[in-house]
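EI: anyone free to look at a 562-residue chain?
SC: sure, send it
EI:
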Amino acid sequence: MTSFERRQRLVLLLRERPGIRIPELAEALSVSRGTIRNDLFALEQNGELTRVRGGAVVNEPHRFHSPEFAARTQANSRAKQRIARRAAEFVEDGDSILLDASTTVFHMAPFLVERRGLTIVTSGIEVALALSRISEHDVILLGGALRPADISVRGHLAEKNLEALHVKTAFLSCSGLSPEAGLTETDLQEAQMKRQMVRAADRTVVLVESTKFGRKDLAPFATLDQVGSILTDDELPARLVEQMRHTCCELTLCGEAAIAMLAPCTGDARHYRIGFANLSEDKMPFAWDVRRGLESAAKAAGNVDLVLADNRLSGDVALQVADCLIAEGIDLAIEYEIDEKAGSLIMEKYRLAGIPVIAVDIPMVGATFFGVDNYRSGKLAGLALGSWIQSNWSGEMDRLLVLEEVRAGALPAARIQGQLDGLEEVLGKLEAGKIKRLNSGNTSATSELEMLSALRELPSAHRLAVISFNDDAAIGVLGAARAAGREEDVVIVGQGSDRRVCDELRRPASRIIGSTAFWPQRYGERLIGLAHQILRGEPVPPAVYMDHVFITAENVATHYPV
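SC: here you go
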C-alpha cells in the first residue's frame, strides 16, 4: 500500500474498532509501530483524528439529537475539553464509573477510549451515543422519563435504577457551586437524580466551569465534604480560589499551558507551590509514570500545590514553560528537560527569580540532581548483555549498535559508557569498527527508523547486539527488527523497565533480554521529600540517586507483579 492508502485503511480501522491500540494497528497493517505513530501524527495534523494515549480517535462530528445541547456543548468548548481530559485521568482500566448528562462531562467521551474494560453508567443519551461510537466499553443507559432539552433521563425510575448500582467514581457537573450551599441545580428533579448518583459512588469528581462558582441555585444535591475533587478552568477569580482552598476539596485549575493542583488549606502546615515541567506527556510512558507518582506524593503530603506543564521534548518549549511556572509564583521547580543546551538558559531564568530547582535525570548546572545513577544502571545492563552473548553466541557478535541521545549531555552519556564497560568486562575490548552509533531521538519512532536503516546496511549480519539510552529506544529497535523479519538477529537491553518492556519480558523468548529498573512510579515520593528539605533550608547532597535492579524474564514477576 502507498502511504495514502495505508492511512485511509488506518482511519477505517479506527472507525470499525474504537479503542484499537498502536500494536494492534501495526499488526493489522503489517508495518512497524513507528510507522503507525508517524501516520497518526500526519492524520492529526490534517485534522482527521485526535491522538490519545495508546491510539487515536477519528474526528467525526457527533450527530446531536438536541440542538440546545449541541449549542451548550460548543460554548467554551476548549475549557471543557481541558477539564474533561484531566477528569479522564481519574479513570483506570476496569473501573465502573457514572457520568451525568452535562455538556462538560460529555467531553470526557473521547478520552475514555484510552482505557480498557470500563463499565459506564450514564443518564445522558448524547453521552451514551458518543461512547458507543468511539469505544468498546459496556455502556448502561439509565431508564426513566426523557428530558427533551438535553436528551437525558431522570425521575423515579432512573433513581430506582441507581439504588441498585454501586460505582467507583461519579463524574458530575452542576449549575452552581459555593462553599456554603455546595453543589446546586436549577431543576428539582435533576438535583434529586444527582443526589442519588453521589450516593451510588465511592467518590465524586466535579467538572464545572469557573463561571458557575459563587452561584447558589434552587436545589442543592451535595455538600463539598461529599466531593473528592473539583476540576475547573483557570479563569476562576483569585478570591474564589482562596475561598475554595479553605474547604475540604482538592481544586484543580486546568489551563492551556499548565494545570494547578491546589491542596486544601485545612491545617497549620505551610503550603508550598511546586512546579513540575515534565519531559513529555504524549510520547513517553516513563515520563507519564513520573508525573502520576509526583501527583500522588503531593496529595499525600497535604501541603503541596502542584503546577504541571509539558516540555514536549523541546528546549524551546521548556523555556516557555519556565516562564509560565515563574508567573505561577512557584516556590520550587522540578525540571525534566532533555536539551542540555537549553538547561543553562532555564536555570538563569529561575536564578533571577530566586527559585531553587531539582533536575530530573538530565543534569542542569546549579540544580540539585535527582534520578538515575547513570553509569551504574548502564553497567548492570552491559554485564547482562555480555553474559548472554557469551552463553548464546559463544562470545561473538557481528556488530554492536548503540542507540544514544546526544542532546541529553554528559551525565546520561555515562549510561551508554556503563553499558560499554560492562560488555567489555565480559567479552574483552571491542574493536572500534564493530560499534555503530545511532540517534535514538529519545523516542521509539525515531529509534525504529534508525534501526531499520541500519538493518538495510547490514543485510548479512545475524548477531546484532543493541544497547539503548532508554526503553523507548529498545522498543523501537525491536519494532524495526520485527518489521524487517529479523527479530532473531538481535539481542537488546533497555534502560528504565517501563510497562512496555516488562510486558515484553513476559513474552517467551523475547529479544529484549532485560532492562535496568529506574522505578519512575517511585520518583514522586522521593522528589517531594527532597523538595521539602530544600524549601525548609536543610542541606541536601548535590545528587540523589534511585536504587537500580536489572529486570529480566526471571525476576519481572517479583518486581512488577501483574
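EI: Residues 374-392 form the longest helix (19 residues).
SC: 👍
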